[in-house]
């Protein structure tokens, strides 16, 4: 049986379709409008100028008015509203744990940033200075000014035959205003109506333009835009957390024994002078612990007040442009796009670790594992009251602001070219330079020498505020720098080359030359393995690429047109790819269009994948099959003890069931390009002049995907390849947990395997992916006479397959559709009414229910069985569907001014219950955005 939400959604869509079929509307028919409809333009996905109506591809166009109605503040907001955007691409919101801090990408059709091509005015953007996951070069959509967008065209089809690499799952072409006169100002601000600090964002822009291309022969414009994202801490939202979330994430309410001024912890020596204490463990608060922090005889610290639940971001983006008529047929143009971005991520203030705890990491330069043993306070230390070495569980709160992680970048893109008509050809040629320089800096991890010296010598004064010099010695600045640079030259031209009986045969030809240069390098203290637990990266590469392409549009009959495109890309002294594309469009009547596409796509191996050097990183929160069962048992035993044992219980559990360890990967110059076979077929029905409905089926098979062996699979099959998983010996801390568990329960619970050290990997062509589904796009405009006009649109994506390849079994894994994060249906129903100076609209956003399990291996959260194993009802193993409604109001009755308001989640829909440990749910509730624009 369908869920009530889905039933209501289906009924709403059916009623909307019925209303559209039952009404007629006035459509503009004056000569000017007719002429505008026949103008040929460059349409995303083709090199041949044509009208929108001639497009034989599934192309979604989002107008400036639609963007305003959606209330989008940023390009990320605009693209986040796409039903084909799977929302799984890198986001600057998670930059604290990202190798590409301060940037956001976009992913269509669950194919990732490497399967989606983003264009600005028909040409590529620069890749970000850092690579996504140390692997994929991608464009940072945060670098594009949102208030200058004229429209966004989304090609929901592969287009490598037109644009080259990356255009596998689709193409997003962001088109900005190119002819602006006067001065325009715009400001926007939003915040939650639940708490003012939630969703607290601001933006503002100024646009200045002079000259008319038609009247003066030139136009110059400049645009500058500012965006600020408000931040708040994890502790700030603690009172807002729903009960089901706290139940699944109890640590959100817990405090830490790593505190200020700390707790002495350890075990009395077996031969201690007092036999009653010999061999016993202890936890004793250090002097001067604030009374409100003493709980159960332990000094505790609220570490949630230091970490960001939502990080701050400051973005300054802009564009400068000009167009100059060289003649009646040729126009010179230039564009300079730039962005200066900074994102700040406050993390937990560091704490000391138990004496003898070993941290391991990978030395990228020497290719060796490194280890560090955390020091104890020695006998005679000013802060050690015992006559044996002791651990002080301590939080370094001297200067919490010091420990923020700052991701910053500066991007630029300069294009100079000529377009127009020359010798009967429609031409477009340009040269350009683009680049991105990114940095990531923080003070958080220990210097292996400076930290030990400051702690053991007494130079660091525990319980006091220490100098910046001492803190910098212990926690030096660390991070990395990345730089991507590209120079290019391109040319394309199209024209009619022959008159066929059914119409003109159109041809386009073109070529591109590109030089790319990339490096990503950690700071020297990381590469020298001075920073404890932090592995480094030192990768780089450069290449020159050439491409030639051609395209033909041939009317076979008056009703049938075929388009054939062919492109060849070649890296000098490297790999190459030849990519064809065939499109057919059959229009038996004016009201009906049948269309289909067969094409191949490819993604060129990135410079990090094929260059030189290497990288290493930490895998976080993984299940270690050889330790997790014991870790669960230790947790249960320790929970029967005192307050300190309660805290240790979670640490023991994490040591086996939520483990972290380093992996290293090296580039592979022998990689092949990723390839895909794409097929789509669709129907467009336009029974009325003002109503069109399109339904398109897509099927994409991607092969030779570049990656490394799956870490989870390696762990599950460790006994078959033990050399891939080197382990340490059982640690002192492991033994201490076992001893304490025996004291509390009398049971012997001991790890048989030590912690994982690392994994050494290399990029290989390993994987495959298959995706398929349906896109539905309904657009209409209804004339209501004196009551104005009504736009009623529906966009929906229905996914039918998402299959990943199992390299061990050499077979497809289970269909991922309907699992966590991959809803089968996503839909947006939009209604916008306008009359005179007023506009009013709404958006209904819908996402269908999913399983709680991420995949078929996620046994603990499987529907029915997973819940039964935990003694919970079956409903707890699902995430319910989610529907929200946004509303919009605009007034333009004051000369030159436009005022608008957006109310997001107008009916205060609560976040779907998610019964497993996870990041914060959406706590915003209703959000109000106010905007004002003026032009003079």
Structure description:
The chain has 936 residues and is mainly beta. The protein has 2 domains: 4-234 and 310-347 and 406-444 and 478-604 and 673-708 and 763-935, Maltoporin, Chain A; 605-672 and 709-762, no CATH class. Helices cover 13% and strands 44% of the residues. The protein contains 15 helices and 42 strands. The strands form 7 sheets. It has a 22-stranded antiparallel beta barrel. Strand 26 (576-589) and strand 27 (592-603) form a beta hairpin. Helix 11 packs antiparallel against helix 12 (643-657). It is globular, with a radius of gyration of 30 Å. It starts with a helix and ends with a strand. Mean pLDDT is 91; it is low at 1-38.
For the sheet with most strands, the description reads: 22 strands, antiparallel, barrel
User: Gap between N and C termini, in Å?
Assistant: 57 Å
CATH architectural name of the largest domain: Beta Barrel
The number of distinct helices, counting runs of at least 4 residues, comes to: 15
CATH fold label of the largest domain: Maltoporin, Chain A
Residues in helix, %: 10-25%
Instruction: Please identify the structural class as seen in this structure.
Output: mainly beta
Radius of gyration: 30 Å
**Overall pLDDT:** 91
Care to count the β-strands? 42
What is the CATH level 1 assignment of the largest domain?
Mainly Beta
CATH superfamily of the largest domain: TonB-dependent receptor, beta-barrel domain
- In total, how many domains does the architecture comprise? 2
Unreliable parts: 1-38
Shape: globular
The amount of beta strand, in percent, is 35-45%
């Amino acid at each position: 049986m369908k869920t009530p939400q889905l039933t209501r959604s289906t009924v709403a869509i059916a009623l909307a379709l019925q209303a559209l079929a039952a009404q007629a509307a006035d459509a503009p028919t004056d000569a000017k409008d007719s002429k505008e409809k026949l103008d040929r333009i460059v349409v995303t996905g083709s090199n041949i100028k044509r009208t929108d109506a001639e497009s034989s591809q599934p192309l979604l166009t989002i107008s400036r008015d639609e963007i305003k109605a959606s209330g989008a503040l940023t390009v990320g907001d605009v693209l986040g509203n796409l039903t084909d955007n799977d929302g799984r691409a890198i986001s600057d919101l998670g930059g604290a744990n990202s190798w590409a801090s301060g940037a956001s990408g976009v992913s269509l059709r669950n194919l990732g940033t490497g399967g989606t091509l983003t264009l600005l005015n028909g040409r590529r953007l620069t890749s970000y200075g850092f690579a996504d996951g140390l692997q994929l070069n991608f464009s940072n959509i945060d670098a594009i000014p949102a208030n200058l967008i004229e429209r966004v065209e989304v090609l929901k089809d592969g287009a490598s035959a037109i644009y080259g690499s990356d255009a596998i799952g689709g193409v997003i072409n962001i088109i900005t205003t190119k002819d602006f006169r006067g001065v325009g100002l715009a400001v926007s601000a939003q915040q939650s109506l639940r708490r003012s600090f939630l969703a607290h964002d601001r933006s503002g822009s100024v646009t200045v333009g002079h000259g008319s291309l038609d009247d003066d022969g030139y136009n110059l414009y400049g645009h500058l835009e500012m965006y600020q994202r408000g931040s708040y801490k994890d502790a700030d939202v603690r009172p807002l957390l729903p009960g089901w979330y706290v139940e699944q994430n109890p640590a959100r309410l817990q405090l830490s024994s790593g505190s200020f001024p700390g707790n002495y912890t350890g075990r009395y020596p077996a031969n201690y002078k007092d036999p009653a204490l010999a061999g016993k463990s202890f936890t004793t608060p250090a002097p001067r612990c604030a009374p409100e922090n003493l709980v159960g005889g332990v000094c505790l610290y609220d570490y949630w007040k230091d970490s960001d639940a939502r990080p701050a971001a400051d973005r300054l983006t802009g564009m400068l442009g000009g167009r100059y008529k060289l003649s009646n047929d040729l126009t010179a143009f230039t564009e300079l796009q730039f962005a200066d971005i900074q994102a700040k991520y406050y993390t937990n203030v560091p704490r000391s670790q138990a004496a003898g705890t070993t941290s391991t990491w990978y030395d990228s330069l020497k290719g060796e594992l490194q280890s560090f043993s955390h020091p104890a306070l020695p006998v005679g230390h000013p802060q050690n009251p015992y006559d044996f070495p002791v651990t002080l569980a301590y939080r370094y709160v001297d200067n919490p602001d010091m420990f923020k992680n700052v991701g910053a970048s500066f991007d630029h893109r300069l294009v100079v070219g000529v377009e127009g008509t020359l010798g009967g050809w429609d031409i477009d040629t340009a040269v350009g330079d683009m680049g991105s320089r990114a940095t990531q800096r923080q003070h958080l991890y220990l210097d292996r020498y400076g930290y030990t010296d400051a702690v053991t010598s007494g130079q660091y004064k525990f319980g006091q505020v220490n100098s910046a010099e001492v803190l910098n010695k212990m926690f030096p600045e660390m991070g990395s720098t990345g730089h991507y640079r590209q120079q290019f030259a391109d040319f394309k031209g199209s024209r009619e080359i022959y008159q066929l009986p059914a119409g003109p045969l159109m041809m386009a030809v073109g070529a591109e030359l590109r030089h790319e240069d990339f490096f990503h390098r950690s700071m020297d203290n990381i590469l020298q393995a001075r920073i404890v637990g932090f592995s480094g990266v030192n990768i780089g590469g450069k290449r020159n690429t050439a491409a030639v392409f051609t395209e033909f549009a041939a009317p076979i009959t008056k009703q049938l047109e075929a388009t054939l495109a062919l492109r060849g890309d070649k890296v000098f002294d490297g790999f190459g790819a030849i990519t064809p594309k065939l499109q057919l469009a059959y229009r038996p009547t004016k009201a009906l269009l049948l269309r289909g596409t067969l094409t191949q796509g490819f993604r060129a191996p990135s410079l990090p994948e094929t260059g030189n050097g290497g990288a290493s990183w930490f895998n976080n929160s993984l299940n270690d099959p050889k330790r997790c069962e014991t870790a669960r048992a230790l947790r249960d035993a320790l929970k029967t003890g005192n307050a300190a044992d309660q805290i240790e219980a979670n640490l023991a559990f994490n040591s086996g069931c939520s483990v972290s360890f380093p992996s290293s990967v090296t580039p592979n110059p022998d990689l092949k390009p990723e390839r895909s076979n794409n097929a789509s077929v669709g129907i467009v029905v336009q029974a009325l002049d003002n109503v069109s409905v399109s339904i398109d089926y897509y099927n994409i098979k991607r092969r030779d995907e570049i990656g490394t062996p799956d870490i989870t699979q390696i762990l599950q099959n460790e006994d078959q390849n033990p050399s891939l998983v080197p382990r340490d010996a059982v640690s002192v801390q492991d033994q201490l947990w076992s001893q304490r568990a025996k004291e509390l329960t009398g049971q012997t619970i001991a790890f048989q395997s030590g912690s994982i050290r690392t994994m050494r990997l290399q990029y290989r062509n390993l994987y495959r992916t298959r995706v398929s589904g349906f896109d539905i796009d309904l657009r209409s405009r209804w004339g209501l006479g004196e009551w104005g006009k009504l736009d009623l649109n529906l966009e929906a994506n229905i996914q039918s397959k998402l299959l990943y390849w199992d390299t061990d079994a050499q077979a497809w894994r289970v269909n991922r559709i309907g699992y966590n994060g991959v809803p089968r249906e996503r839909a947006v129903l939009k209604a916008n009414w306008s009359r005179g100076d007023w506009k009013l609209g709404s958006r209904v956003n819908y996402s269908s229910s999913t399983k709680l399990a991420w995949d078929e291996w996620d046994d603990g959260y499987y529907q029915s069985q997973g819940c039964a194993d935990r003694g919970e009802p079956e409903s707890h193993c699902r995430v319910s569907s989610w529907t929200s409604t946004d509303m919009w109001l605009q007034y333009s009755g004051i000369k030159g001014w436009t005022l608008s308001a957006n109310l997001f989640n107008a009916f205060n829909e609560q976040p779907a219950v998610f019964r497993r440990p996870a990041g914060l749910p959406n706590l915003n509730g209703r959000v109000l955005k106010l905007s004002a624009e003026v032009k003079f």
